[in-house]
Amino acid sequence: MSPPRLFHRGGGPQSIFSIGATKARVAVLDRPAAPERVQFWCGGWLDRMQPARFTFPYGFTGMIPSSEIGEQALFISTLLAALSLGFASAAMASPEVIGCKGDLTKILEALKPLEPKPAGPMRLLASRCLPILHGRYPVYPSPDGRKAFTSHPIDGLWVGSVDRAGANYTFPMHVFTSLWTPIVPFEWLPDSSAVLGVAQDKASGGFALGGLQPYLFTETGGQTPLPVLTHPNGPLDDIFWIGGTGLAFATFGTRGSYFRPEREDPHPTIALVDARAGRVLDAVEIATIPTLPDYRHFVAASSRVDRSGRVRVLTAWRPDIWMLWDQGEKPRILPIHNTIKHPRYTLSMDGNKVLIMGNLKGIGESCDFQIPCPPPIPQSGVIAELREVISGRLIWSITGTTHLGSFSLIPAISPDDRYALITIPSEKNYVGLVSMTDGSVLQRFEISGWASPTLGFSPDGKEAWITSGSGMVTFTIGTQQ
After folding, report:
1. Span 357-407, pLDDT tens digits
2. 412-413 and 419-425 as β-strands: parallel, antiparallel, unpaired?
3. What three-state secondary structure class fits 195?
4. Burial 440-479 (b: 16+ CB within 10 A, else e)
5. Could you tell me which of 408, 422, 394 has the C-alpha nearest to residue 360?
6. What is the widest separation between alpha-carbon atoms in the chain?
7. Burial 58-79 (b: 16+ CB within 10 A, else e)
8. Residue 280: beta bridge partners?
């Protein structure tokens, strides 16, 4: 088995290309072939014809043994490889398949759509089945790649080893989740020793009895309380971790309607906190920020810490309001004019740019009472765009057309700000490796029907990962040929 890998979380002339129905201002890509129907096993049979039940394309443990390859075939393949050095980047060894069950030949066939096309810096490395029971919620690998966590709104927080023989533990709790704000209140410590998170006492009906309490959670069942975070304007109601160090963007006195009896929030407040030290570093009442709506219109937050340790937080509010908060300065409204109702976005590593997904999707009727479901009406528009944070200036955008009705994922940006991983809806759902310089879609692979995927890069930028349900796929990131 390969050694553990490190993971963490997510100008000039241009030409027009087409990927299925997706168009962008980048170079031409080959369209990858994909089978119409593939079945495999990873905790249950799954079928690409039923995307709602599709979880992940895994199924066997181990590699093809070299003993099954004849000496003559091995010699011929070696000779062909030597004669094809000019096409070495396109050659692909069988990916490692770990912790799964099934027929290896079928598994490798099912993995073919995951090989990025055309040949380029990203190559399929390995796929792994994770020992997660409730596998339909986002999964987040630890920085060292040895562990993962996932949270379920009813079953609680699961923290464990990625190996089936390793330790794992489920912490029973009711976790607040939102379709519109797909950010969980948990984050790995940089050394992968524990998960930063929060828990809250709740009544049997789910109403809050008190504010959020920060903890450290481990895969062996350890639950270490951190200092209580308090503010005169109310209890801790929301927290968004910044880089896993204990720093966070937080709110106090903003969710009184979640309490019984209902709590009044006369002065809802946003804050920058150090949860490990139990300190409020800075706090501002929302009502004192010009043009900012009340907290019910809050959508999401993305943040970075610069080399001096100063925090930058970019928040999105409905409708089309973007607020920047640099630690030590007053929050300010930015001229980022993006009309996406529920934007998924990520700050660049230097904090100076923001990658915003367009949430492009087809328009269709509800299928709750109609089988078969009618196909959505195709829609064209922005798939993703990169903007300067301060000025809001558009740097590049990717546009296209899709028939699908799914939402975009939160994009991931590599540690060197060179690449990004984004979802590309077209005739099917794809993930694309994008150049942060000019928006060129360098490669893509298919993820049609995946359940709650997450995207990310390793801390050294040499690998990328995508999770879905109880599975994880990793890719190597090399230099562009």
Report:
1. 998 888 875 566 667 777 778 899 999 999 999 999 999 999 999 988 777
2. antiparallel
3. strand
4. bbbbbbbbebbbbbbbbbbeebebbbbbbbbbbbbbebee
5. 408
6. 79
7. bbbbebeeeeeeeeeeeeeeee
8. 273
Contact 465, 456 (CB under 8 A): yes
Cα atoms found within 13 Å of the Cα of residue 118, Cβ hemisphere only: 11
413 within 8 A of 373, measured Cβ to Cβ: no
Residues sharing a CB contact under 8 Å with residue 353, sequence separation 6 or more, in sequence order: 347, 386, 387, 388, 389, 395, 436
Helix (H, G, I), strand (E, B) or coil at 364: coil
* Domains of the chain, residue spans: 147-181+183-336
Left, alpha or beta for 176 (phi > 0: left; psi -120 to 50: alpha)? beta
Q: Of 337, 336, 343, 347, which is closest to residue 357 (Cα–Cα)?
A: 343
Q: Which residues sit opposite 324 in a β-bridge? A: 314, 332
Let me know: does 468 contact 449? Beta carbons within 8 Å: no
Residue 225 exposure: Cα atoms within 13 Å on the Cβ side:
7
- Cis ω for the linkage preceding 372 (within 30 of 0): yes
Pairing of strands 345-347, 353-357: antiparallel
340's tokens: 């996406």
Count of CA atoms in the C-beta half-sphere (13 A) of 29 = 27
- Among 93-97, 167-171, 193-197, 308-312, which is the least confidently predicted range? 93-97
Whether the Cβ atoms of residue 148 and residue 160 lie closer than 8 Å to each other:
yes
Structural domain 147-181+183-336, CATH architecture: 7 Propeller (2.130)
Coil vs helix vs strand at 108: helix
Angle at 104 between CA 100 and CA 105, to 5 degrees: 150
| Bridge-based pairing state of the strands 394-402 and 412-413 | unpaired
The pLDDT tens digits of the residues spanning 133-163 come to: 776 788 999 999 999 999 988 889 999 999 9
Tally of CA atoms within 13 A in the half-sphere of 31 that contains its CB? 14
